[in-house]
Structure formats: structure tokens, C-alpha cells
Write a structure and sequence with these properties.
By secondary structure, the protein is mainly β. It has strands spanning 13-16, 19-22, 26-27, 31-38, 42-45, 51-53. The chain is built from no helices and 6 strands. The strands form 2 sheets. Strands 3-4-5-6 form a 4-stranded antiparallel beta sheet, with no helix packed on it. A two-stranded antiparallel sheet has the order 1-2. Helices cover 0% and strands 45% of the residues. It has one domain. A hairpin with a 3-residue loop joins strand 4 and strand 5 (42-45). The protein binds zinc ion (ZN). Residues 27, 29-30, 34, 45, 47-48, 50 line the site of zinc ion. Zinc ion (ZN) binds at residues 27, 29-30, 34, 45, 47-48, 50.
Length: 56
């Protein structure tokens, strides 16, 4: 049996039809895998305190 690369990546995106829906946003500073915590008006990274405000 050949070794197929089938690495399981945490699902960040959900594909709906031909649309890709973003599920969680990862920290641009910490990189993939570190997700931003959702708040009502902002998102924060618990690791580096990165903060981004949501726009309505
Ligand atoms: Zn971070």
C-alpha cells in the first residue's frame, strides 16, 4: 500500500457548494492553529493579546 499523504488539518473552512465559509479566524501573529476568541465586538488572541475589532 502506497503512503498517501492524508494529513488531517483542523477544519477552518467549511465548503458549502462552491462557497468556502470561514469558521474560525486564526491569529495572524501566532499563525495557523491559534484561534482568535470571539467576542461580541472584537476578536482577541489569548496568546499574544492581538485584538481585532469587528466591523458591522
Ligand atoms: Zn496571537
Amino acid at each position: 500500500m502506497g503512503r498517501t499523504k492524508n494529513v488531517k488539518v483542523p477544519t477552518l473552512y467549511e465548503v458549502k457548494g462552491n462557497k468556502v465559509v470561514r469558521k474560525k479566524e486564526s491569529c495572524p501573529k501566532c499563525g495557523e492553529g491559534i484561534f482568535l476568541a470571539e467576542h461580541r465586538d472584537r476578536k482577541t488572541c489569548g496568546k499574544c493579546s492581538y485584538m481585532v475589532f469587528k466591523k458591522k
